Amino acid sequence: MGQRSDTKEIVIIGAGIVGIVVAAYLAEMGHKVLVIDRQGICEGTSSGNAGALAFSDILPMASKGILAKVPGWLIDPLGPFSIRPSYLPKLAPWLYRFWRASRANALERTVQAQGALMRLAKPEMLGLMERAGISGMVREDGSLELYESEEELNAALPGWNARKRAGIAFEHLRGGELATSQPGLASRFVAGTFVPGWKTVSDPQHVGKGLWAYAARFGAEFLQAEVRAVTASEKGATIQLADGISIEAAKVIVAAGAWSHQLAKGLGDAIPLETERGYNTTLPVGAFDLKRQLIFSGHGFVVTPLQTGIRIGGAVEFGGLDLPPNYKRSDAMLTKAKIFMPDLDTSGGRRWMGYRPSAPDSLPVIGYARTSKNVLYAFGHGHLGLTQSAATGRLIMDLIVGAKPSIPIGPFSPQRF
């Protein structure tokens, strides 16, 4: 029998951006919060993302005809989407749900729910960063999505029309306007879409650590440890650590990213969470005169100006949590980036891979565990964890204090599957 500690009020499992932001919301409301993570504050996937506050990104991965693309994903290990062939049998049930999420009626419901979450996310995140004193980390440069032909732009128009219906502003650029928006692009790009409201941050890890410093000012504490299981009871929940120690808590919030479904399974929730393994290379500052985030949607990656360098990354690889990284994917994006931006200096880069927790309908999991109101879930944000973290923090706080949620949370229910 392991040792037990005194009962904690609220324990958050996971110190990625979502866990950190939830901690900040609860701590500033006067709650005593303990965050547990096996690595550290914002040391995992949240440290290496593309740094976008992508409030206009309301379209899910699932779309009409998506499963017809799976054979290509299997054939091309370096493409924008890829599946490790050895992982396909394990992925098949998730792909079936992914296909169901791509049907027209399901797709429309997802876009509506994602739009509502984004409308909440923007003021909540910007407000939280202002309270934390880190508003200066936000860049207001917008984004530029690039197309190599008019046909490619035309194919993207239905998505832009959906954003227009959601009130998202954008402008299609060509010729001199495109060249002015980002000098130094290869001539192969004939059009682009500028989104003025798109924001990025100076460095996502710096943002995470800045928000944690704010939470810590209100007394939030951190424990570096590995959580093996969570069990619920009428009075609270027990967190079992790998070192044999058990921690009692009145409330537990599972925000462990791509590992969250393992804990949820022990609580009676079979949540189909998969891992979008994302890759990037961060080049030194000055590698290119980058004006704003560039989105090469046809190739599945973005290029982001950060205070700490230029980050070239994205793409989706389905390979689970255990297979080793394939850094050839990072190299392939870097090679393409050099073609697309001929003056790019590709020397001195740092390669990285992270695990994005992805539900088949691209919506996060926010709400109570099936068996207990003392355990809540806050995970499954895919590649939108930074963007949606403050909206999630607000909703979790609403549930903790017994307030009406700021938006309807049914679409994000852990039991929707």
UniProtKB/TrEMBL annotation:
Domain of life: Bacteria
Organism: Phyllobacterium zundukense
The protein's name: FAD-binding oxidoreductase
